[in-house]
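Researcher: Here's a chain I'd like modeled. Treat it as a single chain, no partners, no ligands.
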Amino acid sequence: MKPTALKYSGQLIAPASKSYGQRLLVLAALTAQTCQIERLGNDRDTQAMKNALDFLCQKEDIHHDAIIDVGESGFALRTLAFVARCFRSSYQLTGHGTLLQRTHFATIHLLEQLGLSVAHQQGKLPLQISGAITNTKIEVDGTEGSQYVSGLFLLAAKFPGEWQITIKNLNSRPYFEMTLAALREFGFQYERNNDFFSFVGNQELSCAQAKVEGDWSSVAAHLVGASIRGKIRVSGLNPESLQPDQNLLDVLKQFGAKSEWKKSELWISESQYKNPFNFDCTHQPDLFPVLVVLACAALGTSTLSGLHRLQNKESDRLKAMCGALDIWGVAYQITQDKIEIQGTGQIKSGKIHTHNDHRIVMAACISNMLSDSVCVPEETGALQKSYPAFLQDFLRFTKA
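Model: Modeled as a single isolated chain. Structure tokens:
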């Protein structure tokens, strides 16, 4: 068995970052003046955030109960759970798809710390939130991630009070720093001592024009494909981005791929060595599925750690990708919080279950670079969540 002769080559304008775009939408909704947002994405999560905010901003009685549909966006859920209190005193959050199967205890507990009442279904949606904010001195545990911490800050920036917030055990820290950067862009002022923050709420926020940068999470699969066999040029990415998935470049360097910035374009070309690599996915769990594919392409044993961050995502990504490795005939071993994958540069062909997870669909497509036949996943609808044009771009880049 030999891998296909596919080459992964072409040019791409990076899709807009839904992470950054959603933050700008929330901040624009909290300002009195109009904010023009350039390059807002057309993905399903960004649209869900926009629709929810449009609904909240309708001129209705603030005491009128509201049912807010966040679609399948975890970020919209965990931020609007807080921000909606700026618009309503009582509201319900609901969603769709895999979001209905996930528990949200960290968000619930933080809302309750503020003094709000939360009715829920054993931690699952819908969440019914009501009451008054009575506590502005908060200690928040960020073990479960940064999204609800971002939600707290987006609320606090516009809610009256002398705020003192201490953050402990913060995971996905770069995404929280992205929220702070977006807040600063809108004029937010605060004092900071490590992870202790103090500020006066109800600040006047404004930004006449903001631009959404390209999304490192979305282009990651393309960069991996080119690193295995090919060459790609990507424009629209920020080389100094706070998005943690730009750390993929460190992995590709270990793998032996060549990366170079030429003016505003990132050029990636294939590795001649296919070196094994080590990477901690703690702050960038979205990279895990496609890095499993890269580990299969490597000649030797690669190690991915930070597995504890993979379970409460769109799917249990560790379980899903172990199932893929079994189908592909690739040996692996899990010990504590890491997986060791014994790459041979090729895999057995076979359809894997994508679990309606957009990142696994992307990884499944890139795995075609390593098998003896091309096999596009049957379930590709999940791509609408973050990158509707991914399959079109994948087919454009693959050349026999």
